[in-house]
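Q: Here's a chain of 490 amino acids. Please give me its 3D structure as tokens.
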Amino acid sequence: MAKNLKKLTLLHSNDMHGDFLAENVDESLVGGVSMLSGYINKVRQEEENVIYAIAGDMFRGSIIDSEYQGISTIEIMNMLGPDVVTLGNHEVDYGVAHLLFLEKCANFPIINANLHIQTNHARLFQPCHIIEIDGMKILFIGILTENVIAQCKTDGIIGTFVNIEDAAEEVGRICNTYNAIDIDFTVLLTHIGFEEDKKLAALLDPAWGVDVIIGGHSHTFITEPAEVNGIPIVQAGTGTDQIGRFDIMIDTDNNCIDSYTWKPVPITSENCPRDPAIEEVIGTYKSRTDAKYGQILTKFVRQLTHPSRIQETELGDLFSDIMKDAIGCDIFLLGSGSIRNTELGPVVTKGDLNECFPYDDAVHMVYVTGAQLKQMLLFMCRDGVWAGEHCEFYQLSKGMEVEYDQASHSFTKFNYEGEPIEDEKVYTVGLQQFHFLNIEKSFGISMADVEKNHKPRMVATSCTQIIEEALLTGRHQNAKGEGRLILHLT
């Protein structure tokens, strides 16, 4: 008997982070939502059954987004026209209440199965969304876990899944509920990281009928899907430089994939037409932000870089030193992920700084013993970091000299100002509020243990203002990015 097959073209993005504008790369335009929209429109004209999904983190990373706290992003996304979007961790950066307002501004469904109010476990969003196309019913389920939603620490009444096992159980519950209405195809839209997606896929019961996992969060660029438990797992890097594309033949009798191809498609001027309507909207926002953020703060002696979040970098040295000097602590541990660009300067405008360092956290000072500090940095250097897990990592301020040997999982040097750090001595350590609130997950040490040494205190309300003021003085114009954290990896 012949199979009943129907074709579905499934396009997807993740971790766009307000990457609205195209860039010139090797004399070619790359990325930007104008050409991204042009490509999506082109595919919609060429193919019959097309769905475009976004796997989290539309927000954060550009001036246009941060200046309007996501309202500009929602307007631009409305024009881009995704069929379904799941939440990422940065969707809550402006607060859960503001996120619920932004959802009302969206002309597309935003799904999430697990964010809930702790008092009564009421969900904040619809857990899933069914798209009916060409007689097929396509079920999308949105998943986050507590590991990537740490920003919600600032909203004490908001809860979420604790781990992957809980997430798998919830997926099963939703699939069991909706499979009775003859779902032809099921997609998990996740924002938990590529390695976590693999773990989640391994826990899914094949009877639940999950066909595909489209993920985000770890900014993983792949050239072919990973397959775990028979489920293709994909991700499309970060920004708008590429889009993922599935071309799937669905067996509508057995509600499963018959065959598929997947590829990352580069968003370039060679293969993507532009969308003038979106360019007009972006141009309006850009003209407003350019006027405000065009002020020159400083000129470095050369361009400074931040090539990786899991190594010492020039920008990491610069910013951690600025924070250390400003608050007068012994050591400042600056979150590597706070620095969003790989390079800055030599001329630095207010807008450049805002885009490179968009997180305007408060600053806290904690008091830790030398032994606790060693424990914290050992936790930072755990094997999962080098294996590709999305873990917090830190830039060390001047005076620190740390040498780590992965083979022995130990430090061969652990000095402060030229002398070995004393286990019993108490040191003052500066932290951004996000990392302070998530100290146990970030450093493997409890707040209760830290408070035994001295009560922590907030010492500043704005990281950005501190860095901006320091750059305006012109005192910090160079950084080496070497010598504070030396890694010997196996």
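Q: Can you summarize the key feature?
A: The CA atoms of residues 138 and 185 lie 5 Å apart.
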